[in-house]
Design brief:
This protein is α/β, with parallel strands linked by helices. Helix content is about 40%, strand content about 15%. It has 10 helices and 8 strands. An 8-stranded mixed beta sheet has the order 1-2-4-3-5-6-7-8, sandwiched between helices. The longest helix is centred in the middle third of the chain and has 16 residues. It starts with a strand and ends with a helix.
């Protein structure tokens, strides 16, 4: 895995010469490190994997970024055109990151060959982390309570400790603005409705233990292509990389 800085954004990538690039979009206030285990899999060695730390998260400074869904999608498309202008594209979107992946795919039209959503947002209930931002008057209050909750969960769960390490790097203003925007965007199941507008293949990869009932119902009611797994956390690419890689290989083949 290589690290580089493009437009002041930290980029993780492999050096694989391939005709397809898979852009991995992290979840709320997370960093690209959440996808690191995929680089050493057979799938990761067969395609070019690129993971940005979005502005305000991980090692990327917020600078003057507005930290809205629209702004993040715009930045993502700029990076795609700069780094992979001539390659076929696919997306892996985790949690809130799937919203950005779907929005970018809709703008890329037939250049995007598929979106693999790892427990991505479909309904308003999916914003159970990010959507809490609307309850706070200041960014720091939101971040402090959020990190305290994740730290408490991490006492008995390694995955939440891993998330906590990325969360601590997050800019509180970026968290606050992005969280409120996600909550507003998620009304009336808009994330799921956008998925249904995609022309490219889509797969929803999920575990019942982590997926709200409303989103499970949405999947079933709308016959959305999905794969249900068991025994994983909200971050299966971390605690079940072999299983995740297996389904990624099948999907993008």
């Amino acid at each position: 895995m290589q690290l580089s800085i493009v437009e002041n954004i930290l980029i993780r990538s492999n050096a694989k010469n391939a005709d397809m690039a898979i852009w991995c979009i992290p979840g709320f206030a997370d960093s690209g490190a959440s996808f690191s285990a995929l680089y050493d899999t057979d799938f990761g060695k067969s395609v070019q994997i690129i993971t940005p730390d979005l502005p305000g998260f991980g090692s990327s400074p917020v600078d003057n970024h507005s930290c809205s869904i629209r702004a993040y999608v715009g930045t993502l498309l700029e990076l795609i055109n700069k780094i992979t202008p001539d390659l076929k594209l696919g997306f892996i979107g985790h949690s809130v990151g799937a919203i950005l992946a779907v929005e970018a795919a809709l703008k890329l039209n037939d250049r995007c060959k598929g979106v693999f959503s790892i427990e991505g947002n479909l309904t308003e209930e999916d914003a159970y982390f990010s959507g809490q931002a609307v309850k706070f008057n200041t960014p720091l209050d939101f971040k402090n309570l959020f990190t305290d909750k994740i730290w408490a969960k991490g006492e008995s769960n390694d995955i939440f400790r891993t998330y906590f390490s990325s969360l601590k790097q997050a800019d509180p203003i970026a968290m606050w603005h992005f969280g409120k925007d996600v909550k507003q965007y998620s009304k009336e199941n808009l994330p799921g409705e956008k998925v249904m507008k995609l022309d490219c293949p889509f797969l929803y990869f999920w575990c019942p233990d982590n997926t709200p009932v409303a989103s499970q119902t949405f999947l079933s009611a709308n016959n959305i292509n999905n794969t249900k797994i068991t025994g994983t956390s909200h971050w299966p690419m971390i605690d079940a990389p072999e299983l995740t890689e297996k389904h990624l290989s099948i999907f993008f083949k």
